[in-house]
What we know:
This protein is 53% helix and 0% strand. It has 92 residues and is mostly helical. The protein has a single domain (22-86), classed as Arc Repressor Mutant, subunit A, CATH 1.10.10.10.
Amino acid sequence: MLYEMQSAVRPVDTSSTEPVDSGVARALGAVATLPPLEQRVIVSRFGLFEQDELRINQVAERLNLAPAVVRSVERRALRSLRRTIAHGEAAA
């Protein structure tokens, strides 16, 4: 069963008056470029966008996936994020 995200990952709000490190902004912007399942796994695993940080088993349970599948999706998403950030493809 494919998991559908209840809400899309929002891009970083650059209008905020709080200073945001450009590297952090670039990383968060890169998350928004991921496919929905990869977004959900990364956001859940690392507690981004005011979400709780979850363990692999918790993410697997919420997404109705095997933990091994969640690990694989997480690795693929992290590789993609590294490439995106390294090549400056995400908006800061």
